[in-house]
Amino acid sequence: MLPEKYKALSDQQAAVRIAKAKEKLGEKVMILGHHYQRDEVIEFADRIGDSLYLSKEAAKSSAEYIVFCGVYFMAETADIVTGDDQVVILPDISAGCPMADMAPIDEVKNAWKDLESLGLTENLIPVTYVNSSAEVKAFCGEHDGYVCTSANAEGILKYIIGEGKRIFFFPDRYLSTNTARKLGVKEIALWEREKVSGGLSEDEIRDAKILAWNGYCPVHARFSCKDIDDLRARYPEIKIIVHPEVPEQVAQKADLMGSTSFIVKQIEDSPNGSVWGIGTEIHLVGRLAKQHPDKKIFLIGTPICMCSMMDRISPQYLLWVLESLVEGKVVNQVKVPEKVKGAALKALNRMYGLS
Ligand code: 13P
Ligand code: SF4
Questions:
Q1: Is 105 found in the same domain as 86?
Q2: Structure pTM?
């Protein structure tokens, strides 16, 4: 819990002290900021990016402390890829990801056992979106599987299917189905986690090239086709760009689809005067609109498309963890148990090998 003395600070007061604490800590600390973070936090990030880029930056860093301004699974991933002598900190330890929580490790293991008892795991490769717990990543590592992010899902799925294998994909149904559609893969079966054997018959499981666990992002699930139609009616020249976590029908109406960094790059590279409708989290869309006043940038839909978990990282929380480090205290460390780490790293390294 944030100590009372930090709660009373304004963002501006916190900013002045964050700058001082950062200066005192110097090279000992590296601050990573995901694109969905608030501007008042992003301004202090040493690196800003999508989940793939930030995990690579964590792995490259020699800083003693990595302060991850993002959500829990991102900090866990950073802990897995950094050395034992490095400490990863999540300013608000309660900043989780509801989608990652939709694939609890026990459910994943039970589903796999279910498939094993039916003799249906031969040639089946577990792949988990990075938005998952370290335990689910470790499960994939132990079963010749992979991690992927929204930036490399296409390449990883293509590679596995090209090897003649089938995929059990956790937890995001839309990342898997939107990517499969892009690859022209039609044999997809939705694994309904609430039902025995995912609610599927043996034949349906056997015929599926991709078994898609039915998790989803509550933020991206809010985007609708009607919102895109309305924007297109108002701005016929508009280009629609979405994150692959949006529902399939929404993705099908978009001109472009990709990770947060892909979205940033497309907007940066577009000509002055271009018009964009963006289907992703509101903090990023708002920042892009501010950074590109020469372009018309709209959030598809309404301002409810905010990730309240990402938003938990405030300047006050960032200040608390930094000033604690200055005093020689570590607060809000994210530490993955050793035996989970090793197996999870296997799945992550298979991903890095392909991206
Ligand atoms: P990126 O990997 O595109 O940064 O997305 C992470 C995420 O949580 C999107 O909701
Ligand atoms: Fe998780 Fe969605 Fe938030 Fe991304 S936007 S961190 S998937 S809840």
A1: no
A2: 0.97
